[in-house]
Amino acid sequence: MSRVLLVCAQTSLLAMLFAPRSEAHNGPPFPIITDQRVGPCIISLWTHPDVGTGLFFVMIDPLPGGTIPKDLKVQVGVQPISGRLAEVVYPAWLENLREQVEYKTEVQFDQQEFWRVRLILSSSAGGGEAVSKVEATPPGFGRWDLLLYLLPFLGVGFLWVTAITKRRRLRKVRAQQAS
Known about the structure:
Blueprint: H1 2-17, E1 30-38, E2 41-48, E3 52-62, E4 73-80, E5 88-91, E6 93-95, E7 101-109, E8 114-122, E9 128-135, H2 144-178
Antiparallel strand pairs: 1-2, 2-3, 3-7, 4-5, 4-8, 6-7, 8-9
């Protein structure tokens, strides 16, 4: 039994050491602008601001009785609030959704700090801007995430092995007492 546990532990360690880097995030995006009128549209801006590559989602609704312009261009500009870098503007692309007009863009955050976010809309029907701020956050613990998420399973395995060992000892004691 101890050899099996040793092999499992070694395999787990190797899997953690040679695991490829994951680009997943640790939670859902959150809104930083909601239902704000910008030019000919009502927008909501959601983000998942991981250090490295951060995601921005722009949900667009028409004004009551209006339509969304066909030539609408959406851009997201980011700049550290400290002013240590110039603003960088990223174009957003239209996501293919059925019932919601949504634009998406990926921006680069080089370190954890507060960033100014500027949403820029332009079209033949008019344009506008909205400004907010967001804190870029680290995307998790890296390779240590695997160990963190593996701990509950290791705990259950430890309890299971402990229970089996105690049960075997109890059987041996009972067998010795019976003979």
